[in-house]
Amino acid sequence: MFTIQQSCSAWRIICFKTTKPTPTAVWWSVKCHTGPEVVLQLNEQGAPHNQVTKRHRKERSLCQQVLERFDQQYSQELGDLWPSARAVLLDPHSWQYGVMLNRFTTVTGITQILQSQGFSTLLPQTPSLSSPRPTLQCYIHPYPLRFPSQAHRPGQLKQYYLLNAASLLPVLALQIRDGEKVLDLCSAPGGKALAITQCATPALLCCNEPDPHRRDWLSKTLESFLPQSLISRVIVSAQDGRSFGQSEAGTYDKVLVDAPCSNDRSWLYSCSSQQGEQRLKERARLPALQTQLLRSALSAVRPGGAVVYSTCTLSSSENCAVVETVLNDCPEADPEDLWEEIAIPLAKYFTFSPAHPGHGQTPHKLGILVVPQPGKTWGPMFLSRIRRRK
Ligand SMILES: C[S@@+](CC[C@H](N)C(=O)[O-])C[C@H]1O[C@@H](n2cnc3c(N)ncnc32)[C@H](O)[C@@H]1O
Q: What InterPro entries does this protein's entry cite (predicted)?
């Protein structure tokens, strides 16, 4: 039984109770804008308690300079999609969360709980998507309900990882198969590396992260989710990704470049105007870094192998423009169209941008863009797949 009211700009779930008796009976409530967020609690066995925790979220302060820059740029680049994308980015309480299950743990109990709470599986058995990733399971909810994150328990693997479901798309685009050598060039905190291990069992997964603090975070993520048998195939490396391609030329079957970018969700909430200014300066320097990382990835991949380039910004100068620059001076690289393979089968769950500025006849040739929209708040996420010719 549940009651839903629409108030403010978002759906407000007033109360939600399963019809099952305790201990599975549970109340959920998500408030919009003000008041506590009520989060489902799980007990030691992973079953929900019949009690809830109230968390008063700190309101985040908006960075006006960043918003003004986004308004100027994205109203031109996204046209009619921008006002609704803007509304989602400005309302963190509307954001949805995906729950990616860990295939190395027993997930039956969690699956039952998720289904009983109204979650459903994101990846249908769509022929074009299902073959390379039969083991990847992610659950999503139509409303912005947040499943609790799991605390670290020594000696026990975590059963699930919370993420923006659009983060799975670059991993799907990699089409990882058992026995491949895979490089995750910009890896921390490790969400996509984990998703890679859910899709298949690589012969080698190299997770590269030059920032020591973030590399520490990455190692902890890997340890909490992967069994020893797989950890032995995973290497954590600390190189500057720009020179990786020179040191390990032609080594990998697949390379993911989940590049540092102007993360649109978090950059809107910079702490001070000084930080906002700093970020806008940094933003101008990012395309050069991204271009070098993508070139390096194309050197690290073997002939016939594939590179996926992704970012979590809507900015075309960090997305299509980077891909175009690299393709212009790399004649042995071909972009592959992800529209039929990913955008069409998953259009029910994600809003893909219909076109990119300046690419008239083949708007999706250089990549596809997930634009957050009300009720489908996933993204921003840009992805492009480039194959190195044999
Ligand atoms: C968008 S995040 C990656 C997120 C990660 N793939 C995941 O799914 O959890 C980009 C990462 O690139 C790293 N980075 C920054 N400069 C880099 C460089 N020159 N080479 C490689 N990685 C770099 C950042 O420290 C950051 O951790």
A: MeTrfase_RsmB-F_NOP2_cat, MeTrfase_RsmB-F_NOP2_dom, RCMT, SAM-dependent_MTases_sf
